[in-house]
């Protein structure tokens, strides 16, 4: 028995999220179906983080156990030949048995793409979120800094969240603007169910001047989801990457490169804006 790790990229619009459901039509369902055909045996997968309906992934990390002998390149090309166009394996690695896609993860990174314009673009539908009211970048940046560090994020978790604790450590939030487009980067040790979409709802309210940046502190202190803004849409959200201990030697992807492929947006790299 060997353990294989896969890096999976998917466009989430056609799927009911990552996690397998009785009716199918999830990313896990189609990936495990392809794995079953590729290995000629049932295969179960474990992922780094379950994404919701309509949420995308640039580098979702998955592991599986198998007795099948295949070259690493065969895992990539063979599976991609069996997967729908909206899902593709980017890389494959054999990993030690103590590797776990979820529990070995040390940090997770998400990006959110938002366009502010008076008219929606059908060409960006499902890939980039949209608001028609003007947004003030500096207000959202001020608000975001209140979220960095260890906090109880109860005000930003779904009522269906199954996490044992609402406490998470946000290591970084960056917000950039280029023309009509805003790019949000979130990094944390882990995220709660709907946490980023709930944070986005709050940040958009603040960016539109409907609440001051200090509202963040009030919501964190109150720990009441009912007091915050509505959950924002899923379409602009991407799981960008997952951090693992260096000795596992897993490939990483640069979200900027993939964003260029996605929409041609030219955002400066985060390091250049520090």
TrEMBL record:
Reported function: Formation of pseudouridine at positions 38, 39 and 40 in the anticodon stem and loop of transfer RNAs.
Name by which UniProt lists this protein: tRNA pseudouridine synthase A
Span of domain Pseudouridine synthase I TruA alpha/beta: 10-103, 143-245
GO molecular function: tRNA pseudouridine(38-40) synthase activity
Reaction equation(s) it catalyzes: uridine(38/39/40) in tRNA = pseudouridine(38/39/40) in tRNA
Record family assignment: Belongs to the tRNA pseudouridine synthase TruA family.
Assembly, per entry: Homodimer.
Organism: Alcaligenes ammonioxydans
Keywords: Isomerase, tRNA processing
